[in-house]
Amino acid sequence: MLTKNLDLTEAQQQFPEIISWVKTGIEVILYENNQPLIRLTPMAIQSLAADEPLSPRVLGLHEGQGWISDDFKEPLPDEFWLGT
């Protein structure tokens, strides 16, 4: 994905142009005092470009590819919380 970086003050003057960039799939990162502050990304490039709804999710697409540890519901040890 193409990214553009802008200063926040600059962005306030170019807001309509920034929205059009995001609609075409360009990510925009706004900076304040040389620190990244806001990231604007399109919700879904394909739906914005073609005005079509997103395809439905497929149940069971990755079945059997994940796992949950047997101790998943067990409390974490004190060392974890205390950082020791």
Features:
Prevent-host-death protein, 4 helices, YefM-like fold, 3-stranded mixed sheet, single chain, alpha+beta, 84 residues
Report what the structure shows.
Strands 1-2-3 form a 3-stranded mixed β-sheet. It contains 4 helices and 3 strands. The protein has 84 residues and is of the alpha+beta class. It has a domain at 1-46: YefM-like fold (3-Layer(aba) Sandwich). The two termini are 41 Å apart. A hairpin with a 2-residue loop joins strand 2 (27-32) and strand 3 (35-40). The protein is 31% helix and 20% strand.
In short, what is this structure?
This is Prevent-host-death protein. With 84 residues, the protein is of the alpha+beta class. It has helices at residues 8-13, 15-23, 45-50, 78-82; strands at residues 3-7, 27-32, 35-40.
List the helices and strands and how they pair.
Layout lengths: L2 E5 H6 L1 H9 L3 E6 L2 E6 L4 H6 L27 H5 L2
Parallel strand pairs: 1-2
Antiparallel strand pairs: 2-3
Protein name: Prevent-host-death protein
Organism: Thioploca ingrica
Q: Can you summarize the main beta sheet?
A: 3 strands, mixed
Quantity of strands, as a count: 3
Mean pLDDT: 86
CATH top level of the domain at 1-46 is: Alpha Beta
Q: Which class do the helix and strand fractions yield?
A: alpha+beta
CATH architecture of the domain at 1-46: 3-Layer(aba) Sandwich
Report the portion of residues in β strands: 15-25%
At CATH level 3, the topology of the domain at 1-46 is YefM-like fold
* Distance separating the two termini: 41 Å
- Contiguous low-pLDDT stretches (5 residues minimum) are none
Secondary structure tally, helices: 4
Helix percent reads 25-40%
Overall radius of gyration: 21 Å
Shape estimate: flat
The neighbouring-strand order within the major sheet is 1-2-3
H/E series, N to C? EHHEEHH
